[in-house]
Amino acid sequence: MLNKSIKVTKKVIIINQKTDTISENTNLINREPAKNGGEVQKINQKNSNQTQMNNEIDQQKCDLRQLQEMIDIYLKNNQKIKEIKSIVDSLKNRTSKLEQQMRQQEGRCKVKRVRRTSTQIEKKYKCYAKNCEKSYGSMVSLNLHMRIKHKRQRNVQEQQK
User: Fold this and answer.
1) I want to staple 125 with a disulfide (CB 3.0 to 4.6 A). Which of 77, 93, 142, 157 is the partner?
2) Whole-number Å distance between alpha carbons of 103 and 91
3) For residues 124 and 107, which has the higher predicted lDDT (pLDDT)?
């Protein structure tokens, strides 16, 4: 039997209503004369195995693309994290410098006052109560002494007049 293959051309016209375009698709199909059942079954099985392998390859390509996208995102995120860490470090340095400046300014403002001792104060206000020999450096201190120790409410100035 002679093996003659028949070539058939299939023409498809596609009309896209949204864009108002018309396109043509011409496919060349090879048709061979009919073979016996065993050969057709082998060919069909071979074709199904090929399509299955093609599907697996397409799935692996898709997985590889997704994996590549994930790796790209991961690398970009790592870069962003490094940038954020450097920003945080610079902000920490700035805050520590500002805290030091604040402490220095507080130290300047809160200068501890040097107080005089009792021997350094000139005591010219003497208590006029009987049997009391206390003397004070200010009139206010003497009045306080009189109120607390001698239970008197009148000022020393009024008493002396």
Assistant:
1) 142
2) 18
3) 124
Query: Do the beta carbons of residue 27 and residue 49 sit within 8 Å?
Result: no
| DSSP characters over 26-92 | EEEEEE-----HHHHHHHHHHHHHHHHHHHHHHHHHHHHHHHHHHHHHHHHHHHHHHHHHHHHHHHH
Domain around 148: 125-160
Over range 61-74, report the average pLDDT: 87
Q: What is the pLDDT of residue 84?
A: 95
Whether the Cβ atoms of residue 8 and residue 32 lie closer than 8 Å to each other: no
Q: 29 has which bridge partners?
A: 8
| 115 domain residue, yes or no | no
Mean pLDDT of 19-23: 69
Q: Residue 80 above 90 pLDDT? A: yes
From 34, 63, 85, give the residue that closes a domain.
Answer: 85
Buried b (16+ CB within 10 A) or exposed e, 56-77: eeeeeeeeeeeeeeeeeeeeee
In-domain check, residue 91: no
**Token pair in block for residue 118:** 């009792």
**Amino acid letter, 125:** Y
Q: For residues 115, 120, 122 and 126, what is the CA-based torsion angle, rounded to 10 degrees?
A: 90
